[in-house]
Write a structure and sequence with these properties.
single chain; alpha+beta; Diaminopimelate Epimerase, Chain A, domain 1; 4 helices; 18 strands
Length: 283
């Protein structure tokens, strides 16, 4: 049996999107997703996203398997791609808003003109028990807290956007040996569910540069939840304003932490790359 897929990317963070609306369970296993994400022997992607039927009066549900087969709670760039994918499936045009159930909560993306998608990412969670991390007591916030990684002490701030993030501010993001340090952060014993790690250079109070090591995917060109978490960390530590451009290797996202409702709003592109079929040999 062949399964049709569509490849999308959000600032180079790329995904295989599958129409899974006829079933509440993903049509592929995590092991099959790993094979498809392989950039030499498969399609190549940072993850596989499944568009499933909605739950609890939401329009749709989202599941995602990372390129290593693990399952994150949600994905910021991925949900923008999912919104564009759903609009293509429906033949809908902007502006249109979806309520999407994820393992990290209900997320509301809105398709805007010119290929942009604005996403209400909800309210960030800041307590150590919500991340989760053992760096502080469960009911305390982790802000500029020292963490020993790779024989160095880093000041880290932790934020959950439905998935866990550890943010540290550096003088020059380009100088960080991400492929060496990233895995050591991800698997640090202080993070029982592993961690996404963002290295942030403050260019101005409304402009941040970011590189990211994603839990389960490694180095990626962009991370939407990470950009949101990084802005929150910048505000909490007095380094940036509540609205800023976050420059990632794949391009820029516009992030705002609203003083009115305390929600994070992320705006950025989602682009279709190509459509194909997965044959029975691979599924």
């Amino acid at each position: 049996m062949a399964i049709e897929f569509t490849k999308y990317h959000g600032l180079g963070n790329d995904f295989i999107l599958i129409d899974n609306r006829s079933s509440s369970h993903p049509v592929l296993t995590p092991e099959q997703a790993v094979k498809l994400c392989d950039r030499h022997f498969g399609i190549g992607a940072d993850g596989v996203i499944f568009a499933l039927p909605g739950e609890n009066n939401n329009d749709y549900s989202m599941r995602i398997f990372n390129s290593d087969g693990s399952e994150p709670e949600m994905c910021g760039n991925g949900i923008r791609c999912l919104a564009a994918f759903l609009a293509d499936l429906e033949g809908s045009h902007s502006p249109i808003t979806y309520r999407i159930h994820t393992l990290g909560g209900v997320i509301t993306p809105q398709l805007m003109p010119h290929g942009q998608v604005k996403v209400d990412m909800g309210i960030p969670k800041l307590l150590a028990g919500e991340i989760p991390t053992t760096l502080c007591p469960a009911n305390e916030k982790v802000i500029d807290f020292p963490l020993e990684v790779a024989l160095k002490s880093w000041e880290v701030t932790c934020v959950s956007m439905g998935n866990p993030h550890c943010i540290t501010f550096v003088e020059d993001v380009a100088s960080i040996p991400l492929e060496v340090i990233g895995p050591q952060f991800e698997h640090h014993p202080a993070f029982p569910k592993r961690i996404n790690t963002e290295f942030i250079q403050v260019v101005d109070r409304n402009y941040l540069k970011m590189r990211v090591w994603e839990r389960g995917a490694g180095i990626t060109l962009a991370c939407g939840t990470g950009a949101c978490a990084s802005l929150v960390a910048g505000v909490l530590t007095g380094r940036c304003d509540r609205a800023a451009t976050v420059e990632l290797p794949g391009g820029c996202l516009q992030i705002e932490w609203s003083e009115i409702d305390q929600h994070l709003y992320m705006s950025g592109p989602a682009e279709r790359v190509f459509i194909g079929n997965i044959t029975s040999k691979h599924n």
